[in-house]
What we know:
The structure is a single chain. This protein is α/β, with parallel strands linked by helices. The protein is 46% helix and 14% strand. The chain has a 7-stranded mixed β-sheet, with helices on both faces. The longest helix is centred in the N-terminal third of the chain and has 23 residues.
Amino acid sequence: MLRFIIIVTYLVLYLILSIPVLLVEWIIxxxxxxxxxxxxxxxxxxxxxxxxxxxxxxxxxxxxxxxxRDTAVLYVGNHRSYFDIVLTLSLFPRxxxxxxxxxxxxxxxLNLWMKNIHCLFLxxxxxxxxxxxxxxxxxxxxxxxxxxxxxxxxxxxxxxxFLPFHDGSFKIAERGGVPVVPMxxxxxxxxxxxxxxxxxxxxxxxxxxEPVYIDKLEKDVKKNLGxxxxxxxxxxxxxxxxxxxx
Length: 246
């Protein structure tokens, strides 16, 4: 429980003490939006790295050389833990927002930082609003902003399983004209969810796979893009699990 208390205390203090920084970032954004994007990502990334260290997480990262540097991308990953976002943001080379649940729009201060790094808030219960969010994501991608989405639609609560990947999630990449980068996350639930409410030291493996260029796929694969990418991630997941945890 001590780690949990320390991390919650740190997060609260971080958000409160960052209020003046938010004001500075707002001013920067009025004159240089690109600088604001980069500095906000750096500030949030630093905060997340501190949380990873406080949690005692041994993070093993592979495949970053596979991430295209000349274009925005859509990162797609399996989702088992709240820590998935904390663990991944600093690994992305470009400004990258997350597609988050709509409820997070109301979280004080945190929601402001999320907006600063171009996060989108998806209402999963409203199809019309959900489509608007996906279309906004496509526009962000066209403008050079990468996005990360977990197409299972919710946090999977069962280890070593995968919920169906929603095909609609990939419309961001398809309409935005950017590649999909599959992202395999192994044992992130070992940090927190496997033993709530305790936070424990854990080894987590994250590996980026070769980018998927939708326009180069065969027609039948495009129609089942969710299954295709889920297959890439699940196959590699069990290989990594055997390599690092068996």
